[in-house]
Specification:
Length: about 200
């Protein structure tokens, strides 16, 4: 800061104002001078004060930025979770209808076995066509038959044992001897466990 600025008295400022007022005439000169005086006062403010204000503003900005990033991350997690739940809901929305159709599918399987014994090729062909169409329609809706056969290891989480019989051979001890009713999955969820007979 120069000595000239320090020695500028109120009387000198008034003289400068008067000269500019006479030269330019009117209010714009007054406004121009007021702005100049404000600028001089700002220059005379201690530097520490403006630095601390900058630091405060930077700290506030960092705080708001951190809050925004946390909020954004939470929103992304929420979107991911809800989309996964929605996908699961779509997969299992028709579970009740599928479960109701399973006995019909079982009847078709039994009917097909009986018609094969009758040796009527035309009848067998017609029923097979209807059976395959029905099974494919259910498969397209997400229904999947669980592949279980005699000789497979018994798993209590995947199979439902309805009875135990003496094993016909040593290999079948603790294993599945017969499948009484097929199991089905809808997507990744088992909607009917296969009913099996195990050997002891």
């Amino acid at each position: 800061m120069s000595k000239e600025k320090e020695n500028t008295s109120g009387e000198d400022i008034e003289n400068i104002k008067e000269n500019i007022h006479q030269e330019f005439g009117g209010e714009p000169a007054e406004e121009f001078i007021d702005e100049g005086v404000d600028q001089i006062e700002e220059e005379q403010e201690p530097e520490g004060q403006s630095v601390s204000e900058n630091e405060q503003l930077k700290a506030d900005l960092d705080k708001e930025k951190d809050k925004f990033l946390r909020l954004f991350a939470e929103f992304e997690n929420y979107k991911r979770r809800t989309s996964k739940e929605r996908l699961e809901l779509f997969k299992t929305a028709n579970q009740e209808v599928m479960t109701a159709m399973l006995p019909v599918l079982d009847d078709f399987d039994r009917a097909l076995n009986e018609i094969q014994k009758a040796k009527d090729k035309n009848l067998l062909k017609g029923v097979e066509l209807i059976h395959n169409k029905f099974r494919e329609t259910l498969k397209n809706k997400g229904l999947e038959a669980m592949e279980v056969k005699a000789g497979d290891s018994f798993d209590a989480d995947m199979h439902e044992a309805i009875t135990q019989v003496p094993a016909p051979s040593e290999k079948l001890k603790g294993r599945i001897v017969d499948v009484v009713e097929r199991g089905y999955k809808l997507g990744d969820r088992i909607i009917r466990f296969p009913k099996v007979v195990t050997g002891k």
